[in-house]
Write the structure tokens for this entry.
Amino acid sequence: MGERLAGICGEAFVRPAEANDAVAGVPAQVVCLPGQVSEVAEVLRACSRHGWRVVPRGSGSKLDWGAPPRRVDVVLDLSRLNRTLEHGVGDLVVRLQAGARYAEVQRELSAAGQRLALDSPHPQATVGGLVSAGYAGPLRLLYGSPRDLLIGVTVVLADATVARSGGKVVKNVAGYDLGKLYTGAYGSLGVIVETVFRLHPLPAASAYVTATFDSPASLDEAVRELRAAALVPAAVEVASQIPGWNLTVLLEGVPPGVADRAERCAALLGASTSAVPPPGWGELPGPADGVLVKVAAEPAALGQVIAALGEWLGPIDPGYAVAGSVAGVLYAAASQPTDIDAFHRSLAALRTRLADVDGSIVVLRAAQSLRAGLDVWGPVAGLSLMRRVKAQFDPDGVLAPGRFVGGI
Amino acid sequence: MGLAELHLELLETLGSEAVLSDRQQLRTYECDGLAHYRCCPALVVLATTAEEIAHVVRRCSAHQVPFVARGSGTGLSGGALPRADGVLIVTSKMRRIVEVDIANERAVVEPGVLNLSVTKAVAPHGYYYAPDPSSQQICSIGGNVAENSGGAHCLKYGFTTNHVTGLRVVLPDGEVTRLGGKAVEHPGYDLVGAFTGSEGTLGIATEVTLRLLRAPESVRTLLAAFPSTDDAGAAVSDIIAAGVVPAAIEMMDALAIEAAEAAVNCRYPAGAGAVLIVELDGPAAEVDQQFLACEDFARSRRAFEIRVAADDAERALFWKGRKSAFAAVGRISPDYIVQDGVVPRTALPEVLRRITALAESSGLRVANVFHAGDGNLHPLVLFDDEVPHQAERAEEVSGAILDLCIEFGGSITGEHGVGADKAKHMPAMFTEADLDTMQRLRCAFDPAGLCNPGKVFPTPRLCGEVPGRHRGEHPLARSGIAEIF
């Protein structure tokens, strides 16, 4: 296997996998680092031919997220495809290879007074990885998630087909929007090699307004008032501050505008203003080795959801942490539970309760002991249709088999 | 014959009020907003419920009869162009706003609900629905979903796809599935995102969950007149470079202004080579400062008249000219083609020069209306069908403009869709591999190829075809189309 791939990428860029190359606990055999799109295609062609299973990887920051794949032969590392291909400053568009690193990209863009309006808890994360994991942080409230920022994408399919969809312009309805399909797909439909994003200007000023609430109901009330005030916050984050919760509003704009809105916001919430974010802003909550879940639900169910999370995780770990956006996506973390069966049962019960508010819980990260028999993704609407999509894009199941919903 | 049996079945189950087959009645539906593509459907079904749509699709599937969905029929790419051998399923009677959920900032609507009706329903609560195509008074949400419609305000607020969080869809085999919901994220593939903008080829949406936005505190609009489109374009560049994100920036050239004047008497400043409408919205303290900046930029780029709307009435007047532009050219020309293409905004001045050159060499006039902020052009190619060869020449110019868009790295359609009209241009923008890959999605949803076939892609993909390894008999051999030697 290594020999065959070395023939494509060069000996220097293929090596045996090590312990930390494992994908959600499943060990791999070989790691290969192609240097060009054509090499990615040849690697996939070889893997398809030989029946080798492939998991694409950027920085690996989220490699332990999702369900464990049934088998991993090759970790296809995109780190060498890390160039900025084109930055259209006047058009507010940037074309990046999938392995381009988030922090570097933002540095480059900020030199032109622009940014990719996407947060990343991992500065070294690759843009391809952010798209594949569908990750979004505080800025999602105003700017959306990768699905809303990606305007063009090129993937390599398992049969080595290189396919583009979208383009370089923000306004574009030619063809199917496959970018939406690949976003959050955990590399199960194709290996992303190139991404095109729309950009936004960096704000001239910003302010953070933080208030503390001692009950979910009072938090809900505050969010309602905030919405009514039409202050157009860039982000509104809730973070557990046991025994209560903090609500932080990020306002961005021109200096007099931000000053005015921050004053009104602070008055509304009984809050304090700061020029800098509160600690933990935009970071994933909890210990790096704990269990981490993502909870999405109807926005108005915020109070109900944080209360339910407290009831669920509090007994497992009194120091549990919740952080997320009032857009209705929260991350929650706790130290690994000791009673595994009870965890599985309570997870199922909570999923049932939250179904009423269009809620879903995905277990992003869990220790090996917790993974056995764990339903990582929960119930999924339209699953049979999703299987058909997978069957069309990767009929032989070469890419990340078992990592995604429904065992896809 | 499948159709005849299907007709009888549908008459029996839905009644003669809902199932039309009389030629005169059918002709009402033979085209959408793109009137020069006409085709009379074999049958028309006027659906009133989601169950009826599912039933019709199921029976079409059983009889292998193709079907096309139609909302208000205002589309500009022939997306609702019927099939002579198929059923046209009309959703325009499904106008119920199922739920307005202000706490969640969502509205759940049936597909026939008119775009503007959503805003009207939620305005009393201080909300609105952002995507605002110029046809918003008559176009349907279902159609908006199919085309991923935009509008003047999509520069800042995005398109339909950024405002749909859930769908109930009748799949091409008649199965009904719910995708997404009120939450912004759901585990699995983003099939809501894949469906939106798929131009009615992946199924029929029978319920749409929309995201609503809080109405802005302040809206300020200016109308600026410039000596030329170059000057106006430079002002736009300045505005964007300063980090301002207007809610809308629209430009019209002299010919478009002339037409609008003739049609709606909008009294734009006389002698303008170009007119710019710039609208800012948001918190008052933000808008006030940015608005002053925009005025300054306009002035520094030789705007010889700047009008600031004093109230809603005056704002509506500024917009009246722009919104009437397409229809207005009918006043200055017997016939015209509305084109829709995109170029990177920074390429606009050069592209406009090339369009002028095209116009001159063809002897035809081209009026330009466009979304200056995002490079989405709507050149209006004016001609007189009575004059020999003018229609062909107009088509050529229109096609050449699309070539220009691709040459400059843009798109063959920014808003109106590919439909029937632009399928032949798709290979200029995408490779065979690109188009084949897109059609894999279509095969997942519609392996039988019955749902709005012939639209978007110039060559259909055989859905039984799995490239690469085959197990067992090749589908082409099995179906008797080919033999393997």
